[in-house]
Fold this sequence. Notes:
The complex is a heterodimer of chains A (163) and B (807). Chain A contains three helices and eleven strands, in the order H-E-E-E-E-E-H-E-E-E-E-E-E-H.
Amino acid sequence: MSGKLQEVVNNQQQQQEVVDNSDEILQLVGFVVGEEEFAIPILTIQEIIKPIEHTRVPRTPSHVLGVFNLRGSVIPLIDLRIKFGVPVTNKSEDMRYIVLKDGDDIAGFVIDRLNQAMRINKNQIDPAPEATIGDKSLIEGVGKQEDKIITILKVSKLLERDF
Amino acid sequence: MDEFQEILQDFLVEAFELIEQLDQDLVELESNPDDLDLLNRIFRVAHTIKGSSSFLNFDVLTELTHHMEDVLNKARKEELKVTPEVMDVVLPSIDMMKGLLAQIRDTGTDQNGIVIGDIVVKLDAISKGEDATTAEAPSTQESSTPNEASSGSSEKPAENEGDGTYVNPLADEPELDYANMSEDEVEAEINRLIKKKADAIKAQKSGDDSEGGSADDVSLNVSATESHPEEKAPAPAAPPPPKAPEPPKPTAPAAKPAGAPAAAPKPAAVEQTIRVDVKRLDHLMNLIGELVLGKNRLMKINDDVEERYEGEEFLEELNQVVSMISLVTTDLQIAVMKTRMLPIGKVFNKFPRMIRDLSRELNKKIDLKIEGEETELDKSIVEEIGDPLVHIIRNSCDHGIETPQEREAKGKVPMGTINLKAYNEGNHIVVQITDDGKGLDAPALKAKSIEKGVITQKEADQMSDKEAFGLIFRPGFSTAAKVTNVSGRGVGMDVVKTNIEKLNGIIDIESEVNVETTMKLKIPLTLAIIQALLVGVQEEYYAIPLASVLETVRITPDEIYTVENRQVLRLRDEVLSLVHIADIFDVERVFENHDHTYVVVLGLAESKIGVIVDSLVGQEEIVIKNLGEYLKGMDGIAGATIRGDGGVTLIVDVAAIMHMAKDIKSQAVAVESSSSKPKNGPEDYTVMVVDDSKTDRKIMKSALKPLGVNIVEATDGVDALTKLKSNEYEVDGMMVDIEMPRMDGYTLAAEIRKYNKYKDLPLMAVTSRNSKSDRMRGVEAGMSEYITKPYSAEYIANVVRRNLGLE
């Protein structure tokens, strides 16, 4: 009996350690805007939906497409392609809205296509390149993977009103 | 600790309830100093609060209420006459009590900040000074001006006036320790005293008239507040009817009492009300909002299904369910809205006291009459409406009601009256404030505004009286010759306008000089779910709060005139400025409008505007949702709503678009004269200058010269008409003087417009007549522009350039 108990306790401790380890791992969702690949922490994503109809809001910059109805909530829609100055391609099957949330701030972002979910160890993430550091930078850091590097975006900055 | 907290909450809720009633009672007391019933009620409040606070160890509060109780007890036993001077000490002590309670509510203690020493000394002086002098009865002081009641009134014998004329029937009563009595004992004691007093009065009545009368006069004259001596019949000393508790102050959301106000009926044997946290009600309201959206959606789907499966049997069943749900939802919504309703009396309650203080401060006699205080409206609106009303009433007291001397000189009764009235009107509540003071003087308002730089002379000339009244709401405007403590800083009325606009309300002012001023505030009953008019422009839809829509009219484009680059519409006897909704919201105009268009006439606060839309979709119940942090505060957008089809429709912020409309130039009617040959440059355009004065023609010609257009001259209307008809020149625009021999400018314009060919020919009136009626006549005659002399050369060149499309 006591041996069994000990086993259970041990097991739990091991799990604890696994969780502790995963703290070092950042889970990201990668997506593509234009030609480039970006990523954002998975925990900031409320949901990812297929494009739905939106309503234009006047007197906003062109990257603010308007607002859309997400199950009863009115949510702003921002086109990352226009925001990043990437040519807007025609509507494709792969286009998605990523709904990001940071505290009370929430908005949907138009992306060209989703890529993959990935785990990156925190020590594989470098701070944003010197030149882009600053209050205005949208870049949180740069993640290195075997064959490529991925730009990790700063969600709080994305959700900040920029006009 | 928890139990203590609970008791504390109960205590606070109760105390605030009591105090609310107290203010009113006290003011009434001043005019009815002999009303024992009132006195007892007031005494009981102090007593109750004292009792509870000593139990809860709020020493400062206990001490203050203890001294108040002393004074009130004396008054109650007729050892002390309630004079305005006494009230000047008692009222501030009540204020202080409120302050202490608020402090307890916010911080949980009464130990920091509020110093009661002064007031306690004054209260003591009153009760002690009275002790010393009752026997001597100095009945001679007749202080008929409130001035004497200034500083240090507490220990002056002034408050003893009239005292001697009373044979106090209760003077032989032993000093009982009321503080240590139980509630029942106090009650019994009170009843006994009332009886005794009543008996004594009966016996005394006959012989008392001569002397007693004069004493009463004094106190009544001094008090410049309401006096309805007969209103409160001496009733058995029943506990005061519980009023709904004070809504939690928005300034202290963290520590607000758990009790939430619900409309409380009269006391009954069994507890008929429960207190509900406002948050729960708000949550409930949100849920109902979702339900309304769901209902709208369901109805839409039902319509679609009906279309597709016409004649199928199950349709009827579906129909029944849908209409039942829709009915229940509506009822539910109304029911929840009702639970959030509070009587406007909550706001009105504080005004008798305010008027009382103001009238003493301003040396005026003002009577406040309140009607319809039981009218109910949404809690959030009750909270918002207080400030504007305070400002309006202050304004009426300060600027409206004259001093008694002035009033007598004008042949009015010295006592000014302010009527405060609330009533329901459809989906709105109307709060009407009337004073019989000096009224608003439109010319004076205009002159003042010009002086202050609020408007220009030109604007003033075009203003109707009603528009001039609206000037008092402009920031920076104040009619008081001197800035007083009360008003005159030029902010107050501006606040009124902003707050009422925030509530989607309408302000209407009517006034007659030296007779009266009436302000009507028309406010929607609730804010969360509103009726809206859905309008369409191109492919987009917008929702306009129906509360702001005065009417809609269908017009043809040629009913729209342009005066000084602004589009206007003549609507009955009014000139309405117009703005196209597409111009406000930058809607791309893909297809051009048809042979008719719609104008939605919007009214907000005191201003009006016409908004041109392409189509009217209909009226719908909408739930207001905000646009979130990212899009918060967009110009012209008040929020969004979700429609039956799941799409989002933006709600128009009427106040904002009225403001925006001022800066928007019309693009709708771009006048293009049908030309036979292509025009490549200014030299291909011809302008006819019609003026009987050679000098004027010369000035105009030189002004137009830089444009490089051809110029034809005509010396009067007949000449111009002949030249135009001769087809000798292809005229692209005309500058027309109004005053000319043979045929004047108006007639000329009317003649020209008779020809379809010249329907769109720009006719620019150039004249020194600049009154509103002249302009209107010009518009009616068919002028497309109205330029007033003197003008600068650039200005006239710009106008011509614009009208010819040379930009």
